[in-house]
Amino acid sequence: MVTDKARDKARDATGIPDAAPSPSGGPPPWTLPAVTFALTVLLAWAAWAKVAQQWAGIAGGAALIALLGWAAATGRAADQMTTAAARAGLAVVLGWAGLAKATEPPALQELAVESYQLLPEGLITPVGVGLPILEIVLAALLLAGFATRFSGALSGLLMVVFIVGIASAWARGLKIDCGCFGGGGQIDDPPYLGEIMRDLGFLALAAWVAAWPPGRFALDRKIGLYQD
Amino acid sequence: MSKAERYRNARERLAEQRRREEQRRKRLRALLVSGGAIALIAVVVVAVVLVRAGGDDGEAVATAPVSRQSDGSIVMAQPGVTGPVLEIYEDFQCPACQKFEEATGKTIKQLAADGEVKVIYRPFSLFRASPEPTRGNSLRALNASLCAPADKWLAYHDKLFEEQGPESRTGFKNDDLIDWAADVGITGEAFEKCVKNTERQSLVDQANDIADKAGVQSTPWVALNGNKLGDVAVFTPEGMREAVRNAPASPAPSSG
């Protein structure tokens, strides 16, 4: 019904032609989406592999926020390719984190939740086991571009919950692994600031997706939710 | 108003109405899609939680005979069963050990009762160098467990893990340790004195030394025939059963 033609029209509306240098002579138009996606994947990898978490988180999170903030401020928000990249990046983050947790024994998933000492006993199992699945489903929705604004908003809400949880553990003097990409429990020197900055970067991605849905290659377009 | 104007007005009104209807349809569709997304998320999450909910691994079972060795460790095995040997290094104040006991504790007792494995519990204090109150909690609980008679040790061990509190607060107070002991049938002045005066300090030191020599760096540290087991074996009943059943009855020559 509304497929390629609408997409072409949307592309025309952005004023940024595909794979051609932008009229102003700056960097090519795919730079912003490509850098956004690459930075996000790098950040997720560093978190998963536990590589220099503190500094990777602080630098990567700050870079992501700065990049998206700059793009929004300079009128690049209409670029649907960037929204698509943000969706894909966020999907990688959530899918990766979800899979890393879901493939662990349920007892360890519960331990990771318990160590925050925030939830009552009855909620430990549902959250410990359910959260990774929620992340995986959200990743699939984002990747497909289905209910994009809703998925982006829910991902953002999830990031806010994570940030609050980590900040509260930090404030209470707990020393725990955030359990973000699997693991959890007590550790010696948690990189709380890096984790919070990283999640703020992901929050910026989610905000972008929620603000300027649905991006290229989205199911929402196919079902006629967006025809601009 | 001329006829042509009226006609144009009517047409504009009609177009306006159509636009509004189209908008309403779009909003409805967006709502339906979001609702579909919520339903999808809810169904998948609930289904997986119901299927995967971990924790309890069955009913309490009759256990194999339990005895204490001179170094304070506790052996649980059917007579004549010499291997495979499952060694369990744990700290009563360690939350992951509590999870381990919840997830696979009963499976291990069952395996020992069925004569499939010889279990050696080696409680020690991983947190002996940690700041208070964690350090004290860990030491008091360990000392009390060493005061408990061998035949009631297992029940007391389970009780201590059940009663474990957060490591950031003072727990395992001597009076509580004595009360919980009474709950599992350990009474008497000798036990109380042993708890209050930390009478098993030398066994505590010995247990810590043994754990150090075995290279234990974290808890729960569960070794089968001297090889440390991975998370799946330690934290899932199926993983534990599989590991034990695939292990040779005699320890590998390299293990200490």
TrEMBL record, chain A:
Chain segments annotated as transmembrane: 30-48, 54-73, 123-146, 153-171, 200-219
One GO term of the biological process aspect: methylamine metabolic process
Residue intervals of the Methylamine utilisation protein MauE domain: 81-210
Record's bilayer topology term: Multi-pass membrane protein
Region (Disordered) location: 1-27
Position of the signal peptide: none
Record has Cell membrane as a keyword: no
A single GO cellular-component term on record: membrane
Compartments where found: Membrane
This protein's UniProt keywords: Membrane, Transmembrane, Transmembrane helix
Biased composition annotated in UniProt, kind: Basic and acidic residues: 1-12
UniProt keyword annotation of Metal-binding present: no
Protein name as annotated: DoxX family protein
TrEMBL record, chain B:
Transmembrane feature ranges: 28-51
Domain Thioredoxin-like fold stretches: 85-231
Transmembrane helix recorded as keyword: yes
Signal peptide positions (record): none
Coiled coil location: 4-31
InterPro entries in UniProt: Thioredoxin-like_fold, Thioredoxin-like_sf
Record GO terms (molecular function): oxidoreductase activity
Keyword Signal found: yes
Record keywords: Coiled coil, Disulfide bond, Membrane, Oxidoreductase, Redox-active center, Signal, Transmembrane, Transmembrane helix
SUPFAM superfamilies in the cross-refs: Thioredoxin-like (SSF52833)
Protein family: Belongs to the thioredoxin family. DsbA subfamily.
Protein name: DSBA oxidoreductase
Organism annotation: Thermomonospora curvata (strain ATCC 19995 / DSM 43183 / JCM 3096 / KCTC 9072 / NBRC 15933 / NCIMB 10081 / Henssen B9)
